[in-house]
Amino acid sequence: MSDAPKHPADPANELASDNSAIDPRDFRNALGTFATGVTIVTAMAADGRPYGVTCNSFASVSLNPPLVLWSLGMFSQGLTIFQNASHFTVNVLGASQQALASQFAKSSEDKFAGVSWTPGLGNAPVLTDSVANFQCRAANRYYGGDHIIFLGAVESYAYNRQEPLLFARGGFGRFLAGDGNKPS
C-alpha cells in the first residue's frame, strides 16, 4: 500500500462545501480577521474594452523571478477576459480610493466611467493615483476550489509613499503606524 496522497479526479470538487465539516460562512468570518490591501486588477478585453475587478486576494509569490498571484471566482463575470488576456495590472489602492474600490466591486456596464487610467503592458489599464501597480504577463492559471488563481510575471511596477487602503471584517480601514518595529 502506498503512502502517496490520493488526489481526486476533479480538483474543483476536492473541498466542496457539501463535502466539508467546515461551515463556509463562519470560515469566511475567520478569514475576515486577516487585514489585506485592496487592489483593482485590470485587463483589456478582446473587443478593446477595459475591464477591472476589486480584489483583495493579491499576494507576492517570488522576488526572483518577480511573481505575484491573485484569484477570481469561478463564476465571475470577467473570468473569460482574464483567462484570455496576455497581461493584467494589479493596481494597489490608496486610503482615499474607497469609492473606487466599491465602484469596481459592483456589476456595471462601464466600471471605468470617470476613472483616469493609461494603457500599460498588453493595454491593461494602469489606474491613475494608485499607491502601486504591478504590470504582469499572465504566466499561469491554477484551479483552487471555487476560484481560479492567476500567476503573473511582473514586467514593470511603480509605487509611491501614499497610505494604502485596507480591508478587514467586511469593511475598509487604514494602516496605523506603530513604533516602527518590524515583525520577526
TrEMBL record:
One of its GO terms (molecular function) is riboflavin reductase (NADPH) activity. Keywords: Monooxygenase, Oxidoreductase. Transmembrane segments: none annotated. Residues 31-174 form the Flavin reductase like domain. InterPro entries: Flavin_Rdtase-like_dom (IPR002563), NADH-dep_flavin_reductase (IPR050268), Split_barrel_FMN-bd (IPR012349). Residues 1-20 are annotated as: Disordered. Pfam families: Flavin_Reduct. PANTHER family: FLAVIN REDUCTASE, FLAVIN-DEPENDENT MONOOXYGENASE, REDUCTASE SUBUNIT HSAB. Belongs to the non-flavoprotein flavin reductase family. This is Nitrilotriacetate monooxygenase. It comes from Bradyrhizobium jicamae.
